[in-house]
């Protein structure tokens, strides 16, 4: 085997390895998005169920969610903190009026922001990305894209 053949073989091996690493990374990123989507959906339903007998969401807090054990297992850390798939803090609070509550996701990376913010968009009262309310009509993806940063804060408001 000549030097050029050996170098050619090594180059091909590096290209294959690089492509494999990229696909593994993409798969891991997509898995985190799926986990975050499942968690927020479950969390929302559990919060609504917890307050089903109440006239509104007055006094709803992250602490109440933790104490009542309604936080999805993969979000709850041993310290009692609630974290998303990217280790960003997740908080629950009363909305602007007592008939709503918010779930705030911090440290959502740029690659995941649009997918997470548009997840079940029609079932939320409002969605804000980095403090800007996103209209749930057409053009939602473009509106979110205009707000993207390296890490993002998404606030989901439900009733």
Automatic annotation (TrEMBL):
The UniProt record lists the keyword Transmembrane helix: yes
Domain Type 4 secretion system PilS N-terminal: 32-159
Gene3D superfamilies in UniProt: TcpA-like pilin
InterPro entries for this protein: Pilin-like (IPR045584), PilS_N (IPR014911)
Residue stretches in coiled coil: none
TM annotation in the entry: 6-24
Pfam families recorded: PilS
Keywords, in A-Z order: Membrane, Transmembrane, Transmembrane helix
The keyword Transmembrane is assigned to this record: yes
Protein name: PilS N terminal
Species of the source: Maridesulfovibrio ferrireducens
Source species taxonomy: Bacteria, Pseudomonadati, Thermodesulfobacteriota, Desulfovibrionia, Desulfovibrionales
